[in-house]
Amino acid sequence: MMDSRGQDGFRLLWPVVFLERMLSGHEQSNRELEQLILEREEAHERMTTDYLDKNLFSLKSPAVDWLKRSIHKSAIDYCKRAGQDYPIDWSLQGWANVNRLGDYHDPHNHPYAYLSGTYYVSVPDSRAPLRNRADVRPGCITFYDPRSAVNMTAIKDDPQIEPEFTVSPKAGMILMWPAFLMHYVHPNLSDALRISISFNLIVKNPTDYLPQQ
User: Fold this and answer.
1) Domain of 59, in residue numbers
2) Is residue 35 part of a domain?
3) Does the residue 151 lie in any domain?
4) Rounded Cα distance, 150 and 142, in Å
5) Which SS3 state, helix, strand or coil, does residue 130 take?
6) Contacts for 82 with CB less than 8 Å, ≥ 6 apart
7) What b/e readout covers 73-96, taking b as 16+ CB neighbours within 10 angstroms?
8) pLDDT tens per residue across span 122-175
9) What spatial distance separates the first Cα and last Cα of the chain, rounded to whole Å?
10) Does 14 map to a domain?
11) Other C-beta atoms within 10 Å of 144: how many?
């Protein structure tokens, strides 16, 4: 594994690298992506749930090409930050999500992938006037610490005290994380659509990248 020792002998063990960034120049591409996704949904009513039916990135579109390039660049940056400073051969699979009022996604991870992520095309800026608990996080996405019950030993100022991490996304934001990480998409509590594109990076010929034992 990457050597994380400091000069005083301490190590940071088992970190999870998480990417959260805004993509520059997303405004025009998002308009094109939104139109493309809604046209596909009109032709395929179950598009959001039948997410493996067709790879979104196989479509011919300037906006799709822009997003593919942006994802590949972000993935290269991610791998370098994680200590993998060498070329990795992967395939990109993606699907669109159109979430209306009340739509959500149960806690899950992404089997058989190496990295997963989501790009946000359109995010509501308000929620419907409903009577809800004060701690609801409409439209957010929450990630859970994969080390079960590690927060049980946390004390004040311990960085392990929070077992979850929540992001309130914005249009133009890309998130990327290890595919094993459990996450939950909170309900959309707005009459406006929340449109996103989720994706997996799947390593080709994975035996070529096995670590030395």
Assistant:
1) 19-129+169-205
2) yes
3) no
4) 17
5) coil
6) 2, 17
7) ebbeebbeeeeeeeeeebebbbbb
8) 999 876 666 667 677 888 999 999 988 887 888 888 877 888 899 999 999 999
9) 10
10) no
11) 15
The CATH number of residue 44's host domain is: 2.60.120.620
In this structure, are residues 189 and 171 in contact, taking their beta carbons and an 8 Å threshold? no
Q: How many CB atoms lie within 10 A of CB 66?
A: 18
The one-letter code for the residue type at 35 is: Q
State both tokens at 2: 């990457």
Whether residue 27 lies inside any domain: the answer is yes
Rounded to whole angstroms, the Cα distance separating 104 from 94 reads 18
| DSSP annotation of 20 | E
Q: Is 70 within 8 Å of 174 (Cβ atoms)?
A: yes
Per-residue model confidence as pLDDT tens digits over 21-76: 999 999 999 999 999 999 999 888 777 777 667 899 999 999 999 999 999 999 99
Tally of domains within the chain = 1
